[in-house]
């Protein structure tokens, strides 16, 4: 067999593995973003019902960009999507 052909096949296999990993990571990241958005929504509703109006809209501004979370390949959790202080507020509203 030709060496170039073997190298081409190996590079293609590595590319396919990377695409599979990124497809899985994209699925997990999307689900985690939905969990965080739903938790912020439930927290905001609870704050509205209790009469606290001071920190309702800025929580959505604190969410990390999707691509930044997607390309952090070792992080499959949802704790780093928002800063620690925001996560502490919405943690009771996160449903599994």
- Straight-line N-to-C gap: 52 Å
Percent range for β-strand residues: under 5%
Largest sheet: none
Report the average pLDDT across residues. 89
SS class: mainly alpha
- Sequence stretches where pLDDT stays below 50 over 5 or more residues: none
Categorize the overall geometry: rod-shaped
Number of helices: 4
Q: How many discrete domains? A: 1
Number of strands: 0
* Secondary-structure element series: HHHH
Evaluate the radius of gyration.
20 Å
Oligomer: single chain
- The percent range for helix content is 55-70%
For the structure shown, list the relevant keywords.
about 100 residues, mainly alpha, about 65% helix
Summarize this, please?
The protein has one domain. The chain contains 4 helices and no strands.
């Amino acid at each position: 067999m030709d060496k170039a052909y073997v190298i081409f096949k190996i590079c293609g296999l590595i590319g396919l593995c990377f695409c599979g990993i990124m497809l899985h990571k994209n699925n997990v990241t999307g689900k985690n973003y939905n969990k965080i958005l739903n938790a912020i929504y439930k927290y905001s509703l609870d704050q509205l019902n209790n009469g606290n109006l001071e920190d309702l809209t800025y929580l959505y501004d604190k969410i990390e960009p999707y691509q930044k979370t997607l390309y952090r390949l070792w992080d499959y959790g949802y704790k780093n999507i928002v800063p620690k202080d925001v996560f502490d507020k919405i943690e009771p509203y996160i449903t599994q």
